[in-house]
Design a protein that fits this description.
Blueprint (H helix, E strand, L loop, with lengths): L10 H19 L10 H4 L4 E8 L4 H20 L3 E8 L19 H15 L4 E6 H5 L12 E4 L2 H10 L3 E5 L1
Parallel strand pairs: 1-2, 1-5, 2-3, 3-4
């Protein structure tokens, strides 16, 4: 099969198809928030969303990934007209990650914990965000209230927190 050589008469037609092809590829490659599906059926009649994040994940890098999803969840709530209210309850291995000092941790990469602290600080600056750590869990790391990151409250027992917040209309979602 022989092809005709590209001549000047064919050039304008060839150039016209390149931008269209590029636009088509760009449309497929870039997700748009406006095109993201909604959750109308699930949130019908709601004006706020209350989530208690039950955080037990003790791997700082993995937890940062979960925090990205939590932030996207918050943005999705706002995009769909819900006022987000979020409580973070740190217990288990996660309780050791919310101390200001990293001296008690056995992690080879302290930089991950420091980046996690920056993310938590940024979340605490958002409206309607509260964070607390379980004193039962922090005892394992020999931590007291003064050892925690600023803005994270030490509570007696996060199982009681979960019970109480659920009674107040919060939905508990485990992060482990």
């Amino acid at each position: 099969m022989s092809r005709r050589p590209l001549t000047v008469t064919h050039l304008p037609r060839a150039l016209m198809t390149l931008p269209l092809l590029g636009l088509l590829l760009l449309t497929w490659a870039l997700p748009a928030a406006a095109d993201k599906p909604g959750d109308e059926r699930a949130i019908e009649g709601m004006d706020e969303g209350r989530i208690l994040w039950d955080v037990t994940l003790g791997d700082p890098e993995a937890l940062m990934g979960r925090l990205d999803v939590i932030l996207e969840t918050r943005e999705d709530m706002q995009r769909q007209g819900l006022e987000p209210h979020m409580v973070f309850a740190f217990r288990g291995g996660a309780a050791g990650l919310v101390a200001e000092s990293t001296d008690h941790l056995d992690f080879a990469d302290v930089a991950n914990v420091e980046r996690l602290h920056e993310r938590l600080d940024a979340l605490l600056e958002l409206d309607n965000v509260h964070m607390e750590a379980c004193s039962i869990a922090t005892r394992r790391f020999d931590l007291e209230a003064g050892d925690l990151l600023p803005g994270i409250e030490l509570v007696g027992n996060t199982f009681l927190s979960i019970m109480g917040y659920e009674r107040q209309g919060y939905t508990t979602i485990r992060i482990d």
